[in-house]
Records
---
Amino acid sequence: MAIPDFQSLMMPLLSACADGQAHNNQALRDILARQFGLTEAELATKLPSGRQGVFDNRVAWAKGHLKQAGLIEIAQRGVYRITARGLEVLGENPKTLNIRYLKRFPEYVAFLSGGQNDKPRLVESVSPHSETPDELIAGGYKQLREALAAELLERIKTVSPTRFEELVVELLLKWGMAAHRKTRGTWLEKAEMAASMASSMKTGLVWM
């Protein structure tokens, strides 16, 4: 099963707190993972940044939205508990619990509009997406890097073989091949080695 988006996690997360007891992050994560039947591979899937799991990130954002709407509260660091409002929402048994539903609460609307300076603003435009803002930012950064790399490659393909050799030598030198004169080989020897590598690479580049 695919990893659920953060809005799909809202109702299950609120329901997991229905007993009125305090639940820590790990307990809530485990409950939701079992409920959605996620595999170890899915739970291990990372954001493009590699710093956090996709599922963990989406659970965190679901908690953040529910908290800002006043449906859950922080009992202590990393521990959450349902509020009276949260119990009322469960009692209504809404068909869907998402950003659109949460907009009925003034505190949540103020939060979306940036009314609380101590919390990061969750831009409303992310609501149609399954990704969290963290995923959208990381994914956009990755796409930008790939686009820049593709453009750079196309530009390099247009230079002369001599200029290409010069570019490779400059790049290797900036990477530090000739930075340490006390290491084995002289600056000239290393530059010559870089030029040799460039010469062997240029033919392959022309035929890419």
---
Amino acid sequence: MWLVVPGVLFMVVFFVYPVCYGIGLSFQGAQGWSSAYRDFFADRLVNNHGSRRSILITLALALTASVINVVLAVPIAYGCGAGFGPNAPSSLSFWSP
């Protein structure tokens, strides 16, 4: 049980706290709690050309990254799995049947 404590402490200090702190900061706006989100999703910003363009650029980058990842990952996964069988040597270095 005590061996888990350093790992959990590391995760809390370097992952949970920064994520919670960032989420908390995102809700602090100039006009009060969650005003940044209200302003962003209000008609005046979403209908603004700059905000719409920013959202479209973000979506295009996310779609491009996803397609590249799938195009590269599927052949690699297929190649790693093609050598499996009762008499075939494994193509994964950490797999030892």
